[in-house]
Amino acid sequence: MKREELVGYLDGLLAPGRFRDYCPNGLQVEGRAEITRIVAGVSASQELLDAAVERHADAILVHHGYFWKGEDGRVTGIRRKRLASLLGSDINLLAYHLPLDAHPELGNNAQLARLLGFVPEGRFGEQDIAWLGALAEPCDLASLAARAAGVLGRQPLVIAGDDRPIRRIGWCSGGAQGYFESAIALGVDAYLSGEISEQTVHLARESGVAYLAAGHHATERYGVQALAGHLAQQFGIACEFVDLDNPV
């Protein structure tokens, strides 16, 4: 498959032009023109780059790529080593951030809903990134936390609310604790995201709405995994998801 064909397809599927993002979406580092093998992962760490080189990948597909707004742009140290690995092996790097959070079928939040049994009903937050819905079956907070732990493979940090049954829920993968107050205003009984801040604890206790911090990496495994599977099915291209442990 030609690189331009793959990038064009992904840009059409994920519509990055719709989003005001913190990094460039799409092709971030250009490699060889022909792509037959893709390695996918959450973040373009050196460990993932090394795995791609070892597997003779032509492209790496990630949720967290490079060139974030506000970071130092000098190519030194860790940044130099990462780019040397890509350029030295002629590997393409493709990254989709907010577009992959938001996609209605393959995105991180859509995949969380599928895996955790949430029934989507709407969107909220900046650029409609966060999702709102109901549980397929109401449950108590302990049951919801146990379900999240079983699916995501890590125990969430749970801040209890007022022990109400969990019927309505808001969720957003990654570092989306900033949408918690909006979720409270929309009448949810619980909110699930990847990370948590100090003030989040007080909002949960004072509002009565439970908060589950289930891990940034853990909640963002599934979008890029679904996207890689979609590409394999659509084009018959070899796509391997490499899950590298990250406790955050």
Polypeptide structure, described:
This protein has helices at 3-14, 46-54, 77-89, 98-102, 108-116, 141-152, 180-185, 198-207, 216-219, 222-235; strands at 26-29, 37-43, 59-64, 92-95, 118-124, 130-139, 157-159, 166-172, 190-193, 210-213, 238-241. By secondary structure, it is an alpha/beta fold. The chain has a six-stranded mixed sheet. The two termini are 35 Å apart. The mean pLDDT is 98.
Q: What tags apply to this protein structure?
A:
10 helices; 5-stranded mixed sheet; 11 strands; alpha/beta; 248 residues
CA distance, first residue to last residue = 35 Å
Question: Counting H and I runs of at least 4 residues, what is the number of helices?
Answer: 10
How many β-strand stretches? 11
Order of helices and strands: HEEHEHEHHEEHEEHEHEHHE
The main β sheet shows up as:
6 strands, mixed
Low-confidence stretches: none
Spatial ordering of strands, largest sheet: 5-6-8-9-10-7
Structural class, by secondary structure, is: alpha/beta
Query: What Rg, in angstroms, do the CA atoms define?
Result: 19 Å
